[in-house]
Write a structure and sequence with these properties.
The chain is mainly β. It has two helices and five strands, in the order βββββαα. Strands 3-2-1-4-5 form a five-stranded antiparallel β-sheet, with no helix packed on it. 20% of the residues are buried.
């Protein structure tokens, strides 16, 4: 199963769930995730993550599972854009 990359768009700390936004062939997709599917981090909007798509609850559609923070190198490999692009280090 291949990993997808996205950004946490919303996370409700009280209820323990949120949404990951990711671009795909058909446009943008927002996938539900639960805190129990996060691997080793507390999610926050703006975090860049990698994840798999798994079956959601009946009638609810797919959800993000195995959600983990994505490193700068993984993001650059996935997008083809250096995490330093536009910064002083990356712009020189």
């Amino acid at each position: 199963m291949s990993k997808l990359f996205g950004t946490i768009s919303r996370f409700d700390t009280t209820r323990g769930y949120g949404f990951v936004s990711t671009a795909h062939v058909g446009g943008e997709m927002n996938l539900f995730f639960h805190i129990s599917n996060c691997v080793g981090f507390l999610p926050s909007p703006g975090h860049h993550v990698m994840f798999n798509v798994g079956a959601g609850r009946p009638g609810k559609g797919p959800q993000a599972v195995n959600v983990a923070l994505a490193s700068s190198e993984e993001i650059a490999t996935h997008t083809g854009v250096s995490a330093l692009a536009g910064t002083q280090e990356g712009g020189q």
